[in-house]
Please model this.
Amino acid sequence: MRRTTRCRLVIYAAVLTVSSRLLRRLSLPHLQRVLEPRRHRTLRGEAARHTGAEYASIVDSVMRRGQPVVAPGCMTRGITLYALLRRAGVDVVLQFGLNADLGGRAEGHCWLEYEGAPFLERTDPRTSFTGIARVSSAGVD
Model:
C-alpha cells in the first residue's frame, strides 16, 4: 500500500472510530445507509482477505492509540471495519449477536462476516453468540 493511501486510511479510520460513539446510537437501517458506499466496487477472494487483514491491523492500532477518545470494543471495531471494507469493495456483513446466560444476564457482541463465516476474529463468535441482526449491502435483516 502506498504511503499516501495508508495515511488517508489511518485518518479515515481515526474519524470513524471517534464517530462510532454517535453512529452506534442510530437505528440499524439508518446506520446501514450511512455506512454503505454510494459507488460499489467488488473485491473478492484472497485480495479481499488481504485487504481485510491490512485494514484490521490499522484499525486495531488506531483504537489502541486513540484511547480514551476512542471507545474500546467490538462496536467501534465492527462499525469502522465495515465502513472501510465496504468502501474498498469487500462484501462484508456486520453481524450482531446476543448471549443470554441462565443467570439472567445478557451479553452482546458484533463481528464481521465474509462469505458466510466470521472475518478477522480470533475465535468463532457463533459458538457463544446467537445472531440477532445483520447489516449488509442488501440492507438490514
Q: What stands out?
A: Residues 3-140 form one domain.
